[in-house]
Design goal:
The chain is α+β, with helices and mostly antiparallel strands. It has a single domain, classed as Chorismate synthase, AroC fold. The chain is built from 13 helices and 17 strands. The longest helix is centred in the last third of the chain and has 24 residues. The two termini are 31 Å apart. The chain binds flavin mononucleotide (FMN) and ligand EPS. The ligand C=C(O[C@@H]1CC(C(=O)O)=C[C@@H](OP(=O)(O)O)[C@H]1O)C(=O)O binds next to α6. It holds the Pfam family Chorismate_synt. It is an enzyme of class 4 (lyase).
Length: 398
């Protein structure tokens, strides 16, 4: 049994998204305003399509929280799909659904349409896209907000920023999180800049080129992906373990990141670059100072050694492929007659990299909260806080 379980449900154009989170300790302050702040961050970003103008994601708390604090019982949250009113006859769960309308029969290369249709035996691929759509990530961000609240209560914070969109790259790409790790730049300052940016980029000089790249792709009926960097700061030594494959923190993080729609690559620390370097350029020498305890002057490992947090910031990079729905569609086959056609065009984003950054923050929060509760045990927030303080003390005094 894992410490925390969560389960999301809901179609993109159904009435609502739902998530149940089970295993969160009692006494954690959580408000709808806190969850809604995260939901609103996920809705932002230059390059999104018409849907974001319709939705205004807000969580309704249905259980597990009373008087602004968790009870220790399962937390259920619901997010209404405002677009439902435009789809209710077509998406109705009842026998009167107008299923013959808005059918999708020309699968989009790069989306789940064709393999999902063959797998589940649906001739109308709407039945696939409704759940394969990244609309579902709103529910994950709501669950992630609860996990994030728990982490913040023990001094762990999560940040993210966009490094590139297509070929448009933040020129300070390699530096910003290194500077923050070294204490020369404030993490919060970087996050505030990213949150204020239309492309979630913490260096304003890169914003215009990223926006221009999105405009160009849009004008050409094309789409773009990009690279995102995510960090977690304030961890004690020893979340995760080397002792078994499924306890490794890096494997849990990689799995969680790859579970996000359209994410195709994950790096931790130096990542792929470490394979090109010699050992002495890759591993972080260990030092010790009274009061500070053990520390490193570099963080090429990205905060994880042997599947465990080593107390340095956890640094992750993820690669998102371009959006599969193209307004200049690619070749495909109409499954009704197997004739070559152009792929279906559903209303679509041109680029959703800034939104995916917020989803990645939420996934990291869920993994870290899971690892935290697995290590500390406990039923009440104070127990977790005491245990984490003790972990910090133990590491300092070791
Ligand atoms: C936040 C977000 C928004 C997305 N918006 C769209 C979209 O508007 N149109 C689209 O075709 N794909 C969109 N995608 C990507 C698809 O969901 C994704 O490519 C699809 O699930 C297949 O990817 P996979 O092969 O990684 O599963 C979005 C992904 C994310 C994370
Ligand atoms: C709805 C969201 O993203 C959707 C993800 C998505 C896809 O195929 O993944 C397709 C689009 O759906 P629609 O056709 O309804 O516009 C996006 O808008 C959201 O992020 O909340």
């Amino acid at each position: 049994m894992t410490a925390i379980r969560y389960l999301t449900a809901g179609e993109s154009h159904g009435p609502a998204l739902t998530v149940i989170i089970e295993g969160i300790v009692a006494g954690l302050p959580i408000t709808t305003a806190y969850i809604n702040t995260q939901l609103a961050r996920r809705q932002k970003g230059y390059g999104r399509g018409g849907r974001m103008a319709i939705e205004k994601d807000q969580a309704t708390i249905l259980s597990g929280i009373r008087g602004g604090k968790t009870l220790g019982s399962p937390i259920s949250l619901q997010i209404e799909n405002r677009d439902w009113v435009n789809w209710q006859e077509i998406m109705s769960p009842h026998g009167d659904a107008r299923t013959e309308e808005r059918q999708v029969t020309c699968p989009r290369p790069g989306h789940a349409d064709l393999s999902g249709a063959i797998k589940y035996g649906h001739r109308d691929m709407r039945n696939i896209l409704e759940r394969s759509s990244a609309r579902e990530t709103a529910a994950r961000v709501a669950a992630g907000a609860v996990a994030r609240g728990l982490l913040e209560a023990v001094g762990i914070k999560i940040y993210s920023h966009v490094l590139s969109i297509g070929n448009a790259t933040n020129p300070k790409e390699a530096e910003l999180y290194k500077e923050a790790t070294a204490g020369r730049v404030s993490w919060q300052e970087l996050q505030d800049k990213a949150d204020a940016s239309q492309v979630h980029c913490s260096d304003s000089s890169a914003e215009a080129t990223m926006i221009a790249a999105i405009d160009k792709a849009k004008a050409e009926g094309d789409s773009l992906g990009g690279i995102i960097e995510i960090a977690a700061v304030g961890l004690p030594v020893g979340l995760g373990s080397y002792s078994h494959d499924d306890r490794r923190l890096d494997s849990q993080i990689a799995g969680a990141m790859m579970s996000i729609q359209a994410i195709k690559g994950v790096e931790i620390g130096l990542g792929f670059e470490s394979a090109r370097q010699i050992g002495s350029q890759v591993h972080d020498p260990i030092y010790h100072k009274e009061g500070k305890g053990y520390y490193r002057q570099t963080n090429r490992a990205g905060g994880i050694e042997g599947g465990m947090s080593n107390s340095e910031p956890i640094i992750i990079r993820i690669a998102m492929k371009p959006i599969p729905t193209l307004y200049q569609p690619l070749d495909t086959i109409d499954i009704t007659n197997r004739q070559p056609v152009k792929a279906s065009v559903e209303r679509s984003d041109t680029c959703a990299v800034p939104a995916a950054a917020i989803v990645a923050e939420a996934q990291l929060a869920l993994v870290l909260a899971q690892a935290l509760l697995t290590t500390t045990g406990g039923d009440r927030l104070e127990q977790i806080q005491e245990r984490v303080q003790q972990m910090h003390k133990d590491a300092n005094n070791f």
